[in-house]
Amino acid sequence: MAIPTFGTNDVDWEKRIDRDVLREGRLAKLRAELERSDLGALLAFDFSNIRYMSATHIGTWAMDKAIRFALVTRHSDPIVWDFGSAAKHHDLFNPWLHTTAAEMDADPHQPHHGAVKPRAESGARAGISTLRGAFHPDAGIADEVARKVRRELEKFGLLGEPLGIDIVELPILFALQRAGVSVVDGQQVFLNARAVKMKEEIQLLTQAASMVDAAYDELYRFLKPGVRENETVGLVSKVLYDLGSEYVEGVNAISGERCSPHPHVFSDRLIRPGDPAFFDILHSHQGYRTCYYRTFAVGSASRAQADAYKRAREYMDRAIALVRPGATTADIVAVWPKAEEFGFPNEEAAFALQYGHGVGLSIWEKPIFSRLVSFDHPEELKEGMVFALETYWPSADGIGAARIEEEVVVTADGCEVITKFPAEELLVAGPKYHAVGFDLPTMRDSQSHLNTTWGRGEE
């Protein structure tokens, strides 16, 4: 059954995505994973983990600053310490931070029966980290963060239990240790909770992919000789923002001889007739991301480029055919080529060219598919997982390459591909050229020679 997609607005005449179910379900999954661990609480500085835990968001400008932090314990619902006036905004507009189904004020060790009640204190609070060291080290900011966290651990009888943290600045880590808090790695708890998606998450991921479908259609129409890579980035970004994207994380636009080796960054290069060009579009729709490659030839393609595309597509199709519950990441990567087969000395040097990764509130979640790690540490595929599979193959002429990526949802008996822009065959974009008496072919091995009758074999 196809996953339903909707417009980006809520309406009263159609049941779409239930936000309360999304918020409560994510927290329940995180809490269940916390209960299975040996941790007493989780402290998050990573924006994706904070959003998963608390359904709060203050924009993408702050994602690299580690300024916000949020805590959930075995005995209390999330507390979010936020940047300046954002805390007041959350206090006014995030009612789920005012009530709790888990907090036990009188006795943190008493049985909990699931009753929702007002909290003694709002879960939306002012607080800030060290601004990645921009605050003067003697200002005491790190110690204040540690004091806030220790207070909650003491309140709920968990000071002696390990505190799991996802990412942390060293001054914060040292301050927590000075405060008597035992700090351990908590990232695996977050990622395990996020690995299998709820129905609402899958709908949002599918909606995000549908927006990229539209961006690729506009890009296909736009591509032609003389267009610069950075112009394609601007076009795609505008399409996505016009459709309601929350954040265009990146458009990886690569063309011509820049395709091999893959530089992973766009430039201002002008696209020329006959160029290969591939793109990766990464954006966020209500927090849920895409990672979605497509490859084109502009004007025409060489036989070497067509062969490279066919090879990349073959590896993709072999991988998708194996996706089902109970299969492992090792099963998938076994059908992909070794690094040495496409010009790299080892798997580390070729990392992320034949690759797979979970997609959710961030673009690289569990499970990870790579010959670098998956044979020794296979991960089981489960119904409800959503991940992207990526394949790459350089063309034999040493210039071009093909890059394909599909996002799939693991279903009860296989998988469903949610990236819909055509990729079964290499698409030729740009103008079709007409000569006297015939059209120039879209397969052209040597363009300068094919512009002569001798080169076309007519003499």
What can you see in these coordinates?
With about 450 residues, this protein is an alpha+beta fold. The chain contains eleven helices and 20 strands. A six-stranded mixed beta sheet has the order 6-3-2-1-7-8. Strands 9, 10, 11, 12 and 18 form a five-stranded mixed beta sheet that branches. Strand 10 and strand 11 (about 290) form a beta hairpin. Helix 4 (about 140-155) crosses helix 5. The longest helix is centred in the middle third of the chain and has 24 residues, at about 200-220. About 40% of the residues are buried. Residues about 105-115 have low confidence and may be disordered.
Point out poorly predicted stretches.
105-113
Q: How are strands sequenced across the largest beta sheet?
A: 6-3-2-1-7-8
End-to-end C-alpha gap? 57 Å
Give the structural class: alpha+beta
Helix content bin: 25-40%
> What is the CA-atom radius of gyration, in angstroms?
25 Å
Strand residue percentage: 15-25%
Largest sheet composition: 6 strands, mixed
Shape: elongated
Global mean pLDDT: 92
Please tally the β strands and state the result: 20
How many DSSP helices?
Answer: 11
